[in-house]
């Protein structure tokens, strides 16, 4: 019989991490009407009139505003859809995404 005892040379440590979330960021511009920005925020991000207005006016005053955080795929899809809604009307409305720290 083979009585050799072997000890493993490497160990596998399994670590499960939450997926990093990505921010959707609204960028101000001089041309898109305020009401249109608010309408897109309500439609694409399921915000109330109040929430949407606050995000819109923050971007308007400061230049940008974080809209919400999602997994990477969802953030990118929503940012693209919201940007396209503006483009369809000829507005330069822009939503970008970036990973959270
Ligand atoms: N600055 C625009 C205006 O005065 C309104 C606006 C707000 C546009 C926020 C884009 O992300 C934006 N009509």
UniProtKB/TrEMBL annotation:
Q: Which Pfam families match?
A: ClpS
- Which processes are annotated in GO (biological process)? protein catabolic process; proteolysis
Record has Nucleus as a keyword:
no
Ranges for domain Adaptor protein ClpS core come to 18-96
Record's Gene3D superfamilies? 3.30.1390.10
Q: Which keywords does UniProt give here?
A: Hydrolase, Protease
Q: Which SUPFAM superfamilies match?
A: ClpS-like
Name a GO molecular-function annotation: peptidase activity
Outline what the protein does: Involved in the modulation of the specificity of the ClpAP-mediated ATP-dependent protein degradation.
User: Could you describe the subunit structure of this protein?
Assistant: Binds to the N-terminal domain of the chaperone ClpA.
Give the family, as the similarity comment puts it: Belongs to the ClpS family.
Q: What is this protein called?
A: ATP-dependent Clp protease adapter protein ClpS
Native source organism of the sequence: Bradyrhizobium zhanjiangense
- Taxon lineage: Bacteria, Pseudomonadati, Pseudomonadota, Alphaproteobacteria, Hyphomicrobiales
Gene (UniProt)? clpS
């Amino acid at each position: 019989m083979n009585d050799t005892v072997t000890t493993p040379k490497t160990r596998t440590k399994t670590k499960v991490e939450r997926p990093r979330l990505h921010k959707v960021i609204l960028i101000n511009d001089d041309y898109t009407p305020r009401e249109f920005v608010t309408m897109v925020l309500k439609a694409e991000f399921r915000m109330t009139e109040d929430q949407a207005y606050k995000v819109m006016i923050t971007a308007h005053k400061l230049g940008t505003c974080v809209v919400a955080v999602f997994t990477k795929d969802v953030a990118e899809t929503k940012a693209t859809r919201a940007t396209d809604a503006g483009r369809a009307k000829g507005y330069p409305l822009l939503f970008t995404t970036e990973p959270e720290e």
